[in-house]
Every structure is written in structure tokens, then in C-alpha cells.
Design brief:
- There is one protein chain.
- By secondary structure, the chain is mostly helical.
- The protein is 62% helix and 0% strand.
- The protein contains 3 helices and no strands.
- The chain has helices at 14-24, 29-54, 64-71.
- The longest helix is centred in the middle third of the chain and has 26 residues, at 29-54.
- It is elongated and about 50 Å long.
- The two termini are 36 Å apart.
Length: 72
């Protein structure tokens, strides 16, 4: 599936936008907002994945020791 950009209008406090610009190093507003949203989604998905791991929702066929041995 191919993704496409969607144009929206968002009201954001000036101070928050200034912080985003400083943190991302971007100079234009659209890339700043897009990057912030992408980062938020990635972090939320990672957190949800971590919860699923801790709850034992995945059954891996190898042990932790076997995984670490593969990394060497």
C-alpha cells in the first residue's frame, strides 16, 4: 500500500512550535509537525509492543541465550 501526505490545519501554541523547531533542527513548519507526529506514533507503537512482550503475547521458538549467541 502506498502512503500519501494529507494536508490539514492544526492550531499549535507558538512556544510549542518554537520548541519543536529547536529540537528537530528543521526550519519549515510542515516538516517539523510531520516529524513530531511520526516520532509520537513510533514511540506509542514501541510502548504497546513492549507491553505485549511483557504480557507474554509472543511465543518465541528460541531462548534469550540462543538469541544472544546469534548476535556474536
Amino acid at each position: 500500500m502506498q502512503s500519501r501526505a494529507v494536508r490539514i490545519t492544526v492550531d499549535i501554541e507558538d512556544s510549542v512550535l518554537e520548541d519543536l523547531v529547536a529540537l528537530t533542527g528543521e526550519s519549515k513548519k510542515s516538516p517539523v509537525i510531520a516529524r513530531a507526529v511520526e516520532d509520537f506514533v513510533k514511540r506509542r507503537k514501541a510502548r504497546e509492543f513492549g507491553v505485549m512482550l511483557r504480557e507474554g503475547l509472543f511465543d518465541y521458538p528460541v531462548t534469550n541465550d540462543e538469541l544472544e549467541a546469534q548476535d556474536r
